Each structure stands twice: as C-alpha cells, then as structure tokens.
Amino acid sequence: MSVVDIVILILKLIVAVLQLLDAVLKFVR
Fold first, then answer.
1. How many angstroms separate the CA atoms of 7 and 14, rounded?
2. pLDDT tens digits, residue range 1-29?
3. C-alpha triplet 22, 7, 21: angle, nearest 5°
4. Any stretches that span the bilayer, and where are they (predicted)?
C-alpha cells in the first residue's frame, strides 16, 4: 500500500465518523 492509499482510507474513515455523529445528533434531538 502506498501513502496515498492510506491517506484516502483515513479520509474516508473521518467522513464516515462525521456522518455517524451527525445522524446520532439528529436522533438525540
């Protein structure tokens, strides 16, 4: 795996976590 692949994976993970947090916040309110 190259460095670019790892960076893309991390970015996708961050986006997924942000979407999950957004969904949780909407669910809580």
1. 11
2. 899 999 999 999 999 999 999 999 999 98
3. 10
4. 6-25
Q: What stretch of H or E contains 15?
A: helix 3-28
Q: What is the pTM of this model?
A: 0.68
What single-letter amino acid sits at 16?
A: A
Which residues form the domain of 15? Answer: 1-29
Tokens at 6, concatenated? 């790892």
Separation between Cα atoms, residue 12 and residue 1, nearest integer Å = 16
Distances from the Cα of 8 to the Cαs of 1, 3, 26, in angstroms?
Answer: 11, 9, 27
